[in-house]
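Journal club prep — side note

Before the paper discussion, L.F. wants everyone to see what a predicted structure for a comparable chain looks like in token form. Sequence:
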Amino acid sequence: MTQKALPLDVGNLSEDVSQSARKAATTSLMRLLRYMGTRLVALFFTVMVGVYFTVLVANMGGYVDDIRRAAIREEVLTSLSADIQFQRLPQEERTRIIQDTIALRERQYGLDQPFIQRSLNSLWSAMTLNLGFSQNMSSDSGSRLVRNIILERLPSTLVLFGTANLILFFLSLFLGLSLSRRYGSFFDKLVLALAPTSAAPGWFYGLFLILIFAGVLRLLPFGGMVGTPPPEDPLSYALSLLRHMILPVSASLISSIFITIYNWRTFFLIYSSEDYVEMAKAKGLSNRMIERRYVLRPTLPNIITSFALLLISLWTGAIILETVFNWPGIGRLYFQAIGLFDVPVILANVVVYAYLLSLTVFLLDFIYALVDPRVRVGEGGKS
């Protein structure tokens, strides 16, 4: 007996395959959306907790409010004591006016509310980026809006630390890769010997640079951003800016360059000793191709992470370094805000940095999936 072969229904098979593909795509999309939602909620609550702790620390648990109440009382008493008509009033009337004026001023600052309520109000304002008005500071134009104060100082910080950090990143990356090819050479040992010098911060080296190049040799200015008065010609202004940037940029580079080169060089050496690199060398591939395919590609997620964190760190500046060089940036602004207990300005820096950091962490998950095929977003522990 012979059996007849059943005819293959190509149309039904194709439809089943397409339905399976659509189902798999829908499942992947739902998994991705669920993962994104979970990550966003987790990052939001992390930012909220960090900002609320900043509110508590900036207010010193309510102690700053006591200082502000005392300052309001002293200001009111000083203002009314200079009023001749006020001095002619009876004692009871003067006491009532003083108390009413103080109560009005305290209501304007929200000091009539309990501290817990005010701290939660500050948290909500910060999370919604309603930065409000500064309590003790103003911009050069006289504005007390925190947004205007920060935007006025931000370009100075971005110019200084953007230049210094970008030079540091690319120079250390290039030199680290170069030293990984020359392991044990004189320059490799020199970088290894100088790496501990990065234990000192940039402002420490800045003091010596100012002493040598500004105080003794008088080749460069002591500090500031441009000369006084500021040059009106754009070219002269740019040259003056570059001249004033030499010392702070050099101080920042000296404090970080050797340890950063050492870190990248060690990182590249680890990947250069992998078995697949030795196999690529045995196949006769060129050194440049091996570095590009088998050394740089595996380290790409780390390079991207380092570069992303570098970019958001530009917002914060460096408090002491900017103060030493009298640089009118964000770091010096917050040093002044801390001294004046200006909570809105302090919160503004923390909130902006927290949002930038959270957004960077969120985006890095997807960037890792693009540059590393082993990473799958939203699949839990699966690779």
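L.F.'s comment for the group: The chain has 14 helices and no strands. Keep this in mind when we get to the figures.
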